[in-house]
Amino acid sequence: MKILMNICRILVGIVFIFSGFVKGVDPLGSNYKFIDYFNAFGMGWMNFSALFFSFVLSLAEFLIGICLFLNIKTKWAAWGALFFMAIFTPLTLVLAIKNPVTDCGCFGDAWVLSNWETFWKNVVLLAMVLIIFFKRERYKSIFNFLEQTVLLVGTIIFMLCIEFYCYRHLPILDFRPYAIGKNIPEGMVVPEGAPRDEYKITLNYKNKNTGEVKEFDETNYPWQDTLNWEFHSSEQKLIKEGFKAPIHDFVMEHPSLGDITDEVLEDENYTFLVVAYNLDKVSTDNLDKLNELSAYAREKGYRFYGLTASNSDKIQQLASLYHIPYEFCSMDEIQLKTIVRSNPGLVLLKKGSVINKWGDRDIPELDVFRDKDLLAYSLNEHRNTTDKYVVYTLILLYLSVLFLYMIRKYKKAKV
């Protein structure tokens, strides 16, 4: 039983840590998912609180996971894990049956599960959480009360720092198909022989004699009996979802040239894309920088477009107010939110590959690009940023271990 207790504690802890962390590095993604849920259940009036719940949910999951994994504050963590599973297990069953939102978002974009997969995953987790809960008094930590408190507070500070940083900038880990280094055309490919969506088609025909409307399918509808039957209506219902490419709605509609998607993705040169999914909510702090970069791109012969889901009136209004020299193309709002978690954000492409991207607060000055190889600069910047995150994490771990060591040494000295 002791071995089973610890296996359950460690496995549940890992799942909660992973779930909380991947949400925490992408708080805006969780915010969009909460809005999807609120709208699906007719609770659109709750949309204002989506970001708050995004922060709280990821922090709570990560905290419970750390407590279970390290066996600290385990009684509290057991109550927290049971509370989570008591809410989300029946909720995911409802989602699996009604399917109002196709992706539950429980692991963000790092691991996408169907609603039924999510439900059965929660059933297994619930079983393990119940073992942890009913045996919670038997867990004994190797850390004393002060050390457990230090670890708990340190975890809270660590997670809040990650959440706020990723909210103000871009996710430090990007699991989306538009991450730096990804190739968009490759993400749009459907493998040969991949399963397709399967639909059930119902054909409704009206009896000319009785006025009765009767349902038929494609094998028995009375298309030849025109004396007695006439077509009334048809219905199409998805019964089995097929393979869906990671990128399936990337379409750039130019106001005068039409669909320029292939032209942009096949361009051997650089292309700058200003992504602003909603011009009513767009931050205007750095639009002047984007105007300067647009002039630089035109001078170098690079493409420079804006992408938005807003209508032409909104585009014209913003362009007139801020003297925007580049043209906007229309694109699906969900794709724009997926490309970059910023409004606006800047993306650099080369032959369909994402070379670099920046959030609104990180849009570089024009001098950064002058007389530089953009590919080499972007790769170097991305490498330096990754190295910086690794160094900060190692420093934090070192300080945490050092602090716990000093507490233990002080305790032994007093004894």
Structure, explained:
- With about 425 residues, the chain is of the alpha+beta class.
- Helices cover about 50% and strands about 15% of the residues.
- It is built from 13 helices and 10 strands.
- It has a 5-stranded mixed sheet, sandwiched between helices. The protein has a 3-stranded antiparallel sheet with strand order 2-1-3, with no helix packed on it.
- Helix 2 packs across helix 3, helix 3 packs antiparallel against helix 6 and helix 4 packs antiparallel against helix 5.
- It is flat, with a radius of gyration of 27 Å.
- The two termini are about 35 Å apart.
- About 30% of the residues are buried.
- The model has no long low-confidence stretch (mean pLDDT about 85).
Short description:
The chain is an alpha+beta fold and 415 residues long. The chain is 51% helix and 14% strand.
